[in-house]
Amino acid sequence: MAKDKSLKSKPLKRKDLGPSDDRTEIMDTEVNTKRKKMDADEAPAHMSQLTNTTDDKKRKKNKKSKKERVNQTVEQAEVLDPPSCPEGTAEAEGLEDLSPDKKRVLERKLKKIRKKEEKKKLKAEGVTLEQTKPSGPSAQQQALDYLTCWAENRSRWKFQKTRQTWLLQHLFDSEKIPDDTFSVLLQYLEGLRGSGKDTTVQKALSLVEESGKAPEDTVIQQRAHRAREVIQLLS
């Protein structure tokens, strides 16, 4: 019986927490406290970000609606007849809240539309802007008239460097200077002096040399024939 009493289980006593266990519990408490504080700090920032995002969406939506109104006004102006739509009436309706820059852009668009419509109207009536501009004589005609004035009306003739340069550049071209005019030009060249004379002779010599390499080319041979006459005159 004494043996049985000794074998009876004794109630376990709770062990006291050691120093290491106390530190662990304190650290867990501090971590939880910091986490709660961080969550509390992040909440306003998150709410602020949501607010900013909402504001940006509203601004973009307002900006888009303004742009749509401007485009709609421009489209309406395209349909209207420009003379029947005085300036400032189309863009005034519903656009009071536009900035000055937007209003200037709209005005420029409307002006372009009006000009385009006016051109279409003139074209439909058979009138073009190009026809109203007087077309002057070509450089070729002016040079030939210059040479004719030298030959027929010397008292009214005045030396013009530009006309002489054109004649020297196309001296050997029978399409630009016909044969009957070339004979008058030879008389004009008798008074040629200075670098203009030297350049003309060198060009004529080059054409004569080129003609020897292409005896069957009629255009080159025709130019070479004129070149020989010029060399004979100026040498």
Explain this structure to me?
With 235 residues, the chain is an all-alpha fold. It has a domain of 96 residues. It is built from 9 helices and no strands. The chain is elongated. About 11% of the residues have low confidence. InterPro entries: WKF (IPR019327).
List the main descriptive attributes of the protein structure presented here:
235 residues; WKF; mainly alpha
SSE layout and pairing:
Blueprint: H1 2-7, H2 19-79, H3 100-124, H4 129-132, H5 139-152, H6 161-169, H7 179-189, H8 195-211, H9 218-234
Region (Disordered): 1-104
Domain WKF: 145-205
Biased composition (Basic and acidic residues): 14-26
